[in-house]
Inverse folding.
C-alpha cells in the first residue's frame, strides 16, 4: 500500500489512490486547483455557482459554502510535529480501536524526497515528472511499506500524523472508500489527534474533510472509525443506506467526482415519516 499527504498512493499496481499529502489548497470554487501548478478550473467554478443558486435556500449548505470559500487556509512552514509526539497522539485518540504502528519516518530534502518517490514509481506512469508535477505540483509526504517519507521542505506540522494514520488503515478501506473519502477521513482523524495535543488545526483537504464531518453526523464517529481502522465497511455502508436520503454508492460516486455539495445533500437524514412508510 502506498500513501502520501495530499493523499497517498494505495494499490499502486492497479493505479494509485493518491493518499500522499501535497501542499494543495483545494478551493470550493474549483474542484481541482492546486498551488503552483494549475489555474482555477472555470468550468468547475460555473458548475458550482449553478449548484449554489439551486441550493442556497438551505442553511447548512450556506454554512458549508462559507467555510469552503473563506475558512482557514493551510499554514505551511511551521515546525513538523515529531514522530514520537505524532504516534502518541494517534494512540491517545485511536489506540483503543486497534494497535497503532508508527513505522519508520524519513525526513528528506526536496531532492531526496523526489528521488525516493521515483525509486518506487519512477519506471511507471506515476513517476514524479509524469504524474506528481502535472497533478499536484509537489507532495508533503507519502508512505510505502511501513516507511513514512516526509518532504521537510514543505511539510505541514501534521504531515507525520497524516501518514501514520494512512499506514494504520484497514486493508480493504482504500478500495471501498475511494481517494476523496479516504483523504477526508484521514484529515478528519488528523484534526482529532491535533486537538488532543492542543495543536491548532491545519486545513488540508478542506472540502473532503468537511463532507466527512457531515458523514460523521449522519452515521456516528464510531462507525467511521471501525470502517477505517478495522475494515467494518459493511456496517458503514448499511448505516448510510438506512439513515440517509442517498445510498452509500451514490455518496461515493459524488465524492469520486468531487461534487461536494451533492455529497452533503445525499447525507441528509431520512424523515421519520419516510422511515415509517419504508417499514410498511
Amino acid at each position: 500500500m502506498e500513501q502520501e499527504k495530499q493523499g497517498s498512493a494505495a494499490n499502486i499496481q492497479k493505479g494509485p489512490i493518491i493518499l500522499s499529502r501535497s501542499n494543495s489548497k483545494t478551493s470550493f470554487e474549483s474542484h481541482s486547483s492546486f498551488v503552483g501548478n494549475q489555474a482555477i478550473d472555470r468550468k468547475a467554478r460555473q458548475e458550482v455557482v449553478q449548484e449554489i443558486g439551486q441550493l442556497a435556500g438551505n442553511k447548512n449548505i450556506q454554512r458549508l459554502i462559507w467555510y469552503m470559500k473563506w475558512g482557514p487556509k493551510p499554514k505551511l512552514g511551521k515546525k513538523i510535529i515529531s514522530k514520537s509526539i505524532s504516534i502518541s497522539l494517534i494512540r491517545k485518540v485511536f489506540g483503543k480501536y486497534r494497535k497503532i504502528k508508527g513505522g519508520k519516518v524519513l525526513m528528506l530534502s526536496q531532492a531526496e524526497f523526489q528521488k525516493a518517490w521515483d525509486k518506487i514509481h519512477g519506471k511507471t506512469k506515476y513517476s514524479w515528472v509524469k504524474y506528481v508535477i502535472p497533478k499536484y505540483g509537489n507532495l508533503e509526504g507519502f508512505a510505502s511499506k511501513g516507511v513514512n517519507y516526509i518532504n521537510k521542505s514543505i511539510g505541514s506540522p501534521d504531515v507525520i500524523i497524516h501518514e501514520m494514520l494512512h499506514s494504520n488503515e484497514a486493508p480493504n478501506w482504500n478500495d471501498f472508500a475511494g481517494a476523496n473519502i479516504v483523504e477526508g477521513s484521514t484529515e478528519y482523524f488528523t484534526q482529532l489527534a491535533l486537538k488532543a495535543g492542543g495543536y491548532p488545526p491545519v486545513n488540508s483537504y478542506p472540502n473532503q474533510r468537511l463532507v466527512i464531518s457531515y458523514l460523521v453526523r449522519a452515521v456516528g464517529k464510531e462507525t467511521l472509525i471501525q470502517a477505517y481502522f478495522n475494515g467494518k465497511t459493511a456496517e458503514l455502508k448499511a448505516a448510510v443506506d438506512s439513515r440517509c436520503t442517498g445510498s452509500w454508492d451514490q455518496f461515493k460516486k459524488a465524492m469520486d467526482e468531487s461534487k461536494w455539495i451533492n455529497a452533503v445533500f445525499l447525507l441528509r437524514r431520512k424523515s421519520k415519516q419516510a422511515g415509517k412508510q419504508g417499514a410498511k
Summary: The CA atoms of residues 86 and 163 lie 10 Å apart. Confidence is low (pLDDT under 50) at residues 7-18, 24-41, 72-77. The chain is about 55% helix and 5% strand.
